Amino acid sequence: ISIEELNAQKQKTVTNVKKVGGMSLCCSYCCLLTGFSGFILLGLFALCLWQQWFFEAEISLLPEEQRNEEFNSKALSFLIGMILELIIGVLSIFWIKKNNKKIATAKAVA
Questions:
Q1: 63 — phi, psi (to 5°)?
Q2: I want to staple 35 with a disulfide (CB 3.0 to 4.6 A). Which of 1, 4, 69, 88 is the partner?
Q3: pTM reported for the whole predicted model
Q4: Which keywords appear in this protein's UniProt record, sorted alphabetically (predicted)?
């Protein structure tokens, strides 16, 4: 193997390592923050609706069965949103770990 071939192989390995941009880091940490804070807030809203701590004039005029059905349907929609926010928060943890591995690889090569 000639020296030129070795230099070409080294250049290929260095150029294949992509550095993590600042926008990717910012976006992953933002997803982490909004995912878990949204999970907590939507959980509190769902609890308030489920226990009927929330007051709406239109709903309070309805009969008891319709009022319970209305509150439970709204609470269920908040629970679905809460699960989606939890998924976003958990996936952002994996995204951050992936970015940290890329940063460590880029530092090791450089």
A1: -65, 165
A2: 88
A3: 0.71
A4: Membrane, Transmembrane, Transmembrane helix
